Amino acid sequence: xxxxxxxxxxxxxxxxxxxxxxxxxxxxxxxxxxxxxxxxxxxxxxxxxxxxxxxxxxxxxxxxxxxxxxxxxxxxxxxxxxxxxxxxxxxxxxxxxxxxxxxxxxxxxxxxxxxxxxxxxxxxxxxxxxxxxxxxxxxxxxxxxxxxxxxxxxxxxxxxxxxxxxxxxxxxxxxxxxxxxxxxxxxxxxxxxxxxxxxxxxxxxxxxxxxxxxxxxxxxxxxxxxxxxxxxxxxxxxxxxxxxxxxxxxxxxxxxxxxxxxxxxxxxxxxxxxxxxxxxxxxxxxxxxxxxxxxxxxxxxxxxxxxxxxxxxxxxxxxxxxxxxxxxxxxxxxxxxxxxxxxxxxxxxxxxxxxxxxxxxxxxxxxxxxxxxxxxxxxxxxxxxxxxxxxxxxxxxxxxxxxxxxxxxxxxxxxxxxxxxxxxxxxxxxxxxxxxxxxxxxxxxxxxxxxxxxxxxxxxxxxxxxxxxxxxxxxxxxxxxxxxxxxxxxxxxxxxxxxxxxxxxxxxxxxxxxxxxxxxxxxxxxxxxxxxxxxxxxxxxxxxxxxxxxxxxxxxxxxxxxxxxxxxxxxxxxxxxxxxxxxxxxxxxxxxxxxxxxxxxxxxxxxxxxxxxxxxxxxxxxxxxxxxxxxxxxxxxxxxxxxxxxxxxxxxxxxxxxxxxxxxxxxxxxxxxxxxxx
Amino acid sequence: xxxxxxxxxxxxxxxxxxxxxxxxxxxxxxxxxxxxxxxxxxxxxxxxxxxxxxxxxxxxxxxxxxxxxxxxxxxxxxxxxxxxxxxxxxxxxxxxxxxxxxxxxxxxxxxxxxxxxxxxxxxxxxxxxxxxxxxxxxx
Amino acid sequence: xxxxxxxxxxxxxxxxxxxxxxxxxxxxxxxxxxxxxxxxxxxxxxxxxxxxxxxxxxxxxxxxxxxxxxxxxxxxxxxxxxxxxxxxxxxxxxxxxxxxxxxxxxxxxxxxxxxxxxxxxxxxxxxxxxxxxxxxxxxxxxxxxxxxxxxxxxxxxxxxxxxxxxxxxxxxxxxxxxxxxxxxxxxxxxxxxxxxxxxxxxxxxxxxxxxxxxxxxxxxxxxxxxxxxxxxxxxxxxxxxxxx
Lengths: 678, 139, 244
Fold this sequence. Notes:
The complex is a heterotrimer of chains A (678), B (139) and C (244). Chain A is α/β, with parallel strands linked by helices. Chain A has 24 helices and 28 strands. Chain A has a 7-stranded mixed beta sheet, sandwiched between helices. A 6-stranded mixed β-barrel of chain A has the order 23-27-24-26-25-28. A 5-stranded parallel beta sheet of chain A has the order 10-9-8-12-13, with helices on both faces. In chain A, α11 crosses α12. The model of chain A has no long low-confidence stretch (mean pLDDT 95). Chain B has 4 helices and 4 strands; from the N terminus they run βαβαβαβα. In chain B, strands 2-1-3-4 form a 4-stranded parallel beta sheet, with helices on both faces. Chain B has one domain: Rossmann fold, CATH 3.40.50. With 139 residues, chain B is α/β, with parallel strands linked by helices. Chain B has helices at 17-26, 48-56, 77-94, 112-129, and strands at residues 8-13, 35-40, 61-66, 102-106. The radius of gyration of chain C is 19 Å and the shape is globular. Chain C contains 9 helices and 4 strands, in the order ββαβαβααααααα. The model of chain C has no long low-confidence stretch (mean pLDDT 90). Chain C is mostly helical and 244 residues long. Helices cover 34% and strands 7% of the residues of chain C. Chains in contact: A-C, B-C. At the A-C interface, β1, β2, β3, α1 and α7 of A face β2 and α1 of C.
């Protein structure tokens, strides 16, 4: 037919909206919302409406390329694949398999991420596999795992609409997760209390019932402060605390010193407002916490996540509908990439690589010997590349040259590698440095599944053919494994891969392609007749009793000084996604927000004599960039904000790669910077 | 508190009211100084979007002055104006903007006195209505 | 529409295609779907399952030569009572009813009444609060069956200069003005709005203004929009005016 409408899942944030791609003569020409979709309800955000725009872009990679001297030159698939295989074999035999790192991708499907980690673990023989969850919610996974026993969003997206209170922190929800933000607004129309705690006034905080502005990096203090108020006013849920948790006495002890006045001193949040927020949250029947990068991307990210879990448990807001601790994950399949085991310490389904029984189970399932040592994280791999311990990297659909902190450091690390292969849809900043570049299919050109932030498995359907010689990542991974001489990669379709995931990961036990085709299923779903799980930790926690964590406020790794007087924080805006490889090639999105900018408070700007629209130079201890000043009242004095989407003004030239000791997530959200006229 | 001094835009057609304003000036007719004149080639080129934008940004009043019907340099340009601007006033009223902040009138090149009279009246009207509340609204 | 993957999808069938499980109970705006499909179907006739609002939207499109009315066959669908109530629809019955039964129109729109009864300050405050929620998805334009400009004014920074979101007052009022002679009150803008801004009420009030000033209602197949004619009612010479 001249026009088909193919139902698929949005490739941007982790909300998991479904929509139809309109296909004409093998080209994707538009997006039509799906009115009956549970998540989107027939609405989309501007990125969703433009999700077709980059698919047929002339910049798409269409043929494999191999480095010949200074140049990347066209090559055949055979040549390119054989080059990767030869280099991996050589480096692995010379330096051991742990000198190879595989970067999986939160933009790829569950099936593909499963194959990436299987490729690393079975075909190469290393647990060195990681992906950009390390940079966003690694601290969520480790923090919630320790507190609750499961590292995922406890409740579902539709529940936001019916909550009595929503506490949003470190999330610019209306811009970064527009459809979730919209649900929070719907809740507010129904008289729910919405509390936003953020160093910037966001579009959501301006409408919120209560908006608190903390100094970046002081989050533990205000959360402990809220618990202090709740405990001292006896607003806590005694029954829940006694019946379902452990460690409350110690928590009580530690929060004692976080009185509202002390918290005001540390965070800048007025004591009265903190008390109001604590009461609002504690007195609600069902209170949900939503958070994102503003919590996780700190050098104490894991602890921060745990304090939020404390807050929820103290008030009994876990394990019921419209409650819970809800990390909003920022990429279409970052949840699924974690589920599928693209993590250096966990097999698919969050099973530890260091557990001998589990290891032997996977050895049996995969028919090969596995390494019992946990692998390297993404952030660690770049450090180890600099010291020469990591020699080769295979990067599937990631762009660390823009997304990782302290790009100068990343660039130096990449230059030191013996070998870099990049599989991507566009010539990214990282691909330009590669030895081999393979062209991949984008979301509209392949089949598979994404797992949304609320654990819902959403189907991705092929609407058009990949451009030129490009192939789907799952085919590339299988082909590489086969050429490395490995068995167990003869999949004919992603559906077969999903079946294998179900067989090895109990969380996905009841998931198969036919079932999720017409049904929204949320994991854990251990068997075919299991309905899936909307609310986690009902009745009891995954690990039995929920564990309170004793956490004290520690200052961020880098604080403002005389030379670098501003606190620089980074993030997204509404119109672009991540490193902009897709959105900046979408004409309408690019028109909305064409150039990099820095948000600066109007008073600071006046003091420095910087006018709106002026070109300014922002400097940190690691680098400097020149961007346009956006003078605004929506950011606190002393704080500046730069979105990290723009290669020509890359915020991550400035950011600090100080790491959280547990999750190894970098501190994107706080570093010291200075600002002057360019 | 100082007296409210309105901030007013007047779109004047090049072929009539702009010359009318000029004439008023040459004849040294006294009138308020709150008006910023914008010369346009025809009152029809004053798209409603400009009027709406001006009001949304806190301008207190918008005056659109064109040629008398029948005198349009482009024959029927002002016919469009005659329809669009009154509709614009009604539409803005529905979101709570006072429709009297928009005024349409016809002033020929010879009507220096009419220009003076229209401007004076409009400024007085706006003064009595008060400042545009959208000046203070922050989205 | 057809059931696909547990959802309801718009579908275009060729002669001889099996229809599958067709249904007409989900309010996709078929005129909007038609205008997306039409440019890709160079010849032949297209049959459209059309509600009253679709029918009127197609009339608006054909008056502006965006579709050729002779190439379109309408299958008239009468909305159910529930749908009419949900859309607060005051004109629910297509010219020919092929499917369903006509229901009574909703005469009074409570949102419109509420806004009309407010004093100006309250009205301004009401809409400011509503527009503050806008996160500029453009759903109201993308899904609008009578939004057809190639270059959308709202995307032009000349008119909505505010950075980021919300896009401010002008965005919504310009759109209101722009649709006054076209809007067929299908309510798709309001249904598509993720944050529930009562856009249909805004549209209805502008339509009422149009009627009051010029006695004109959009969707009239025989009459050109008064904004595109002289005071005497003659068409303004083509090229002098932009179609929108």
